[in-house]
Amino acid sequence: MTTEHQEQEKSYDSGDSTLKFVTRQDDITLDDDPDTLRAEMSCGHAVTPQSLTAWCRSLLDQGQYDFRCPALKDGTVQKCEARWSYQEVRKLAVLTATEQQHFEETMAALAAAEYCEFKTCPGCQSYVEREDMSNLCVLCTVCTAEKQRCFQFCWQCLQSWTGPAPRSDRCDSDGCTSRDLQLLQSCPSTTLPQVENAGACPSIRACPTCGLLLEHDRSGCKNLLCQRCKVEFCFLCLKLTPICLKSSSYYLPCSNGVACRQTSIPAWNRN
């Protein structure tokens, strides 16, 4: 049986007293079939097992494991953004055993990628974690022990470190350039169809808080929630969402226009 067919088969147990059932439309898909049983999430919005599963799976596909409600608040164009626990999602999405395994394995991998940053040491090929996000000079303890001397390499070009340290831009090795910066400079331009008259912008942006490179899928509003630092910002003007919304809205052009291509990548201070 395919995943799609399994989702079609899902339904709530009308006798489940732990769920609050409602007759209004699905707040994710806006479906209002009167014969469909819907349940209310903790934030008050209505879902079906199918719509909730599809939405949360789409978040995982985008690298997000922080499940948030996409419904609009009553009478506004602002999203609810209430956080749902995985336990609540698992229950109200009626996840199958296969779906639970997929969700939990994906969530674990995303969490590891968020809180740890690893690269392969060019000397010993072992994985090394970078603790200081603002310093490109990284010490490999394995190579240091084997060589009995300090061995450092450049996080950016993956060559043995040359020049003074700490540094946040480059080491002194020939050809040490940031591939991420090159991508920001050379990526094609795009437009956001839902934001009329906004103009073109680079198709890839670095999160203004943590520097993670993100691409807009061109659907929905102009704002993105960064999957790493969980800060929402405007893809057009690069301001944090609360600041952008003071003079604009989710679907209107920014008051200061579209920000230029980024020439530096912010270093994330987890503290």
Give a description of the structure.
It is a single chain. By secondary structure, the protein is an alpha+beta fold. The protein has seven helices and 13 strands. It folds into three domains: 112 residues, Herpes Virus-1; 61 residues, no CATH class; 83 residues, no CATH class. Helices cover 24% and strands 13% of the residues. The strands form six sheets. Strands 1-2-3 form a three-stranded antiparallel sheet. Strands 4-5 form a two-stranded antiparallel ribbon. A hairpin with a 6-residue loop joins β12 and β13. The longest helix is centred in the middle third of the chain and has 19 residues. The protein is flat, with a radius of gyration of 23 Å. The N and C termini lie far apart (46 Å). The N terminus is likely disordered.
List keywords for this structure.
two-stranded antiparallel sheet, 271 residues, 13 strands, 7 helices, alpha+beta, Herpes Virus-1
How are the SSEs ordered, and which strands pair?
Layout: H1 3-9, E1 21-22, E2 38-40, E3 46-47, H2 49-61, H3 86-92, H4 97-115, E4 118-120, E5 127-129, E6 137-139, H5 141-147, E7 152-154, H6 179-186, E8 189-190, E9 201-202, E10 204-206, E11 213-215, E12 223-225, E13 232-234, H7 241-244
Antiparallel strand pairs: 1-2, 2-3, 4-5, 6-7, 8-9, 10-11, 12-13
What can be said about this structure in brief?
It holds the Pfam family IBR_1. The chain is an alpha+beta fold and about 270 residues long.
Question: What is the CATH topology classification name of the largest domain?
Answer: Herpes Virus-1
Q: On the 0-100 scale, what is the average pLDDT?
A: 89
Low-confidence stretches: 1-7
| Amino-to-carboxy terminus distance | 46 Å
Query: How many structural domains in the coordinates?
Result: 3
Strand order of the largest sheet: 1-2-3
Q: What kind of assembly state do the chains in view correspond to? A: single chain
What's the alpha carbon Rg, rounded to whole Å? 23 Å
Order of helix and strand elements from N to C terminus: HEEEHHHEEEHEHEEEEEEH
Portion of residues in beta strands equals 5-15%
CATH architecture of the largest domain: 2-Layer Sandwich
Number of helices: 7
> Could you give the count of β-strands?
13
Q: Give a short account of the largest sheet.
A: 3 strands, antiparallel
CATH class of the largest domain: Alpha Beta
Overall morphology: flat
Portion in helices: 10-25%
